[in-house]
Predict the 3D structure of the following.
Amino acid sequence: MAQALTEDFRMTDKTLLVIGASGDVGRGISRAARVLGWTVVGAARDAAKLGDLARTLPKESLGSFYPCTGDVSTQAGARELWEAASAVAGRIDAVVISVNAPNRSSPLVDWTAEQLAELFQANLLSHFNAAKVMLPLLPDDGMLVGIGGGTADFVIPGMAPLSMAQAALRMMYRGLARERDGGALVRELMIVSMINGASKRDEAQPEWLTDDEIGRHVCTILSHPEDFPDPVIKIAQRAGIGRPQNFSA
């Protein structure tokens, strides 16, 4: 499948918008897509972090990379980001949303309603804003993929609010996919693993999935959607990278 994936990406020459490109997962997706020949628009709020990402991309990459600052905290911001990305790249064929906010560790009863609202704004509504604005603008053969976490199914001590947000995110993507009647596809990739990315290299354990492995898996989903018919896809082990999982979320 890896060889077929490479050929598919080189032949299609499509453009991918990665929202949250400067984060650990976003970096892995941007690298994987570029190596395979896609044009990547990397979007984030911090221009300096995008510049750092551009400098660390492999020089032998086949595809182009365009940094684009913006945010999806509002629907107006999501539309501005789409317009800016389309202007620099010419068109957008697929979107990956990989955004989240830091989550403090504290018992659920110690959170205020206002703090929970802020967490849901950053980890759920940001995805909603981007999906609501961008899904109708994608081509009919396009795809929107949201990145979620495995804590939708379990609670780490002190992290119940994050589990709540991730569970809601999963149902949001499942609902969006169920309501679609043609047009671009909607998928969520739930990563049931810690990520060995730029921010955690020094503490990463051997069993953690790497950012590049996640990037390759996302590229497989984008290139072979027929192999991933379920709206929510889980990846928990590197043995599953590039392969459809035998269970749905």
